[in-house]
């Protein structure tokens, strides 16, 4: 009898073990299922800050007729120290005694006989001006600054002398009153050559230097400010020696459009 009872005993134990493991497994499955439902239930999820993907802002551009759009630059374009500040007979400087705070003396680029002021330009254009002169020199053209920055007092002397010599009507066609001159911004230069041939004369535009500047100055950010045929717009006679810095991109756009800075100003809006 004892021999026959042993298999039954082990069978019972095995059944109990299987039942226990089955219960444990069922409990584990139930807990996992319940946990998944809890996790996936939006009502039970913790409130988290939603990640917002910020798009890069699209750069604002300025488009001149027939020209490639260019990026706007920061600042108020009517501020006296802005790179694109329009200064002419109807848009005088806000501060008639304005003097740029970043003037530097371009000794090596200017005529030796000029005053320290007229040898000076704003520091933000000195590198481009140096590159322009170097490129010209590579073509056998030795450029010089004939006049850079002029204070209001200096401009008054120039203007008064021209009025006495030529009369006010004539003087107003080629000389600006104090506060109305681009030279006071420190961004304009009258250029000449080392031999000063045709200096401050219309014939400068027919010289090798004048022709080279008309074609290449814009690549360095300088525009011929008073072009031939635009006298009614600029208010001044053709000056193939007077160049104004506006930056390479804007200079290129002005060349492409054929507009003067005066005409392009209506397309500019302050940022």
Uncertain residue segments: 35-39
Radius of gyration: 38 Å
Percent helix, as a range, is 25-40%
Q: How large a portion of the residues is in β-strands, by DSSP E?
A: 5-15%
Number of E-type strands:
8
Brief synopsis:
The protein has 271 residues and is of the alpha+beta class. It contains eight helices and eight strands.
Describe, in plain words, how this protein is organized in 3D.
The chain is an alpha+beta fold. Helices cover 37% and strands 12% of the residues. The protein contains eight helices and eight strands, in the order αββββαβααβαβαβαα. The strands form three sheets. The chain has a four-stranded antiparallel beta sheet with strand order 5-6-8-7. A two-stranded antiparallel ribbon has the order 1-2. About 2% of the residues have low confidence.
Please render the helix and strand layout as text.
Blueprint: H1 2-40, E1 61-62, E2 70-71, E3 103-105, E4 120-122, H2 123-138, E5 143-147, H3 152-166, H4 168-171, E6 188-193, H5 208-216, E7 222-226, H6 231-234, E8 239-245, H7 248-257, H8 261-264
Antiparallel strand pairs: 1-2, 3-4, 5-6, 6-8, 7-8
Features:
12% strand, alpha+beta, 8 helices, 271 residues, two-stranded antiparallel sheet
């Amino acid at each position: 009898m004892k021999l026959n009872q042993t298999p039954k005993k082990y069978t019972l134990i095995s059944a109990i073990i299987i039942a226990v493991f089955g219960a444990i497994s069922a409990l584990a499955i139930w807990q996992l299922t319940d946990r998944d439902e809890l996790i996936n239930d939006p009502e039970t999820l913790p409130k988290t800050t939603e990640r917002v993907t910020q798009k890069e802002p699209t750069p604002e551009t300025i488009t001149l007729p027939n020209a490639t759009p260019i990026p706007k630059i920061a600042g108020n374009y009517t501020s006296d120290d802005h790179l694109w500040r329009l200064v002419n007979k109807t848009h005088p400087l806000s501060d008639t005694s304005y003097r740029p705070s970043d003037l530097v003396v371009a000794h090596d680029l200017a005529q030796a006989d000029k005053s320290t002021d007229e040898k000076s330009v704003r520091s933000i254009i000195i590198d481009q001006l140096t590159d322009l002169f170097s490129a010209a020199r590579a073509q056998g053209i030795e450029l010089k600054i004939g006049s850079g920055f002029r204070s209001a007092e200096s401009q008054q002397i120039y203007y008064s002398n021209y009025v006495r010599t030529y009369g006010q009507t004539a003087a107003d066609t080629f000389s600006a009153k104090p506060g109305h001159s681009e030279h006071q911004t420190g961004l304009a230069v009258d250029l000449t050559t080392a031999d000063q041939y045709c200096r401050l004369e219309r014939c400068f535009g027919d010289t090798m230097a004048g022709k080279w500047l008309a074609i290449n100055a814009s690549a360095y950010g300088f525009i011929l400010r008073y072009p031939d045929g635009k006298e009614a717009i600029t208010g001044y006679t053709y000056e193939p020696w007077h160049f104004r810095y506006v930056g390479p991109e804007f200079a290129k756009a002005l060349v492409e459009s054929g507009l003067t800075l005066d005409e392009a100003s209506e397309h500019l809006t302050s940022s």
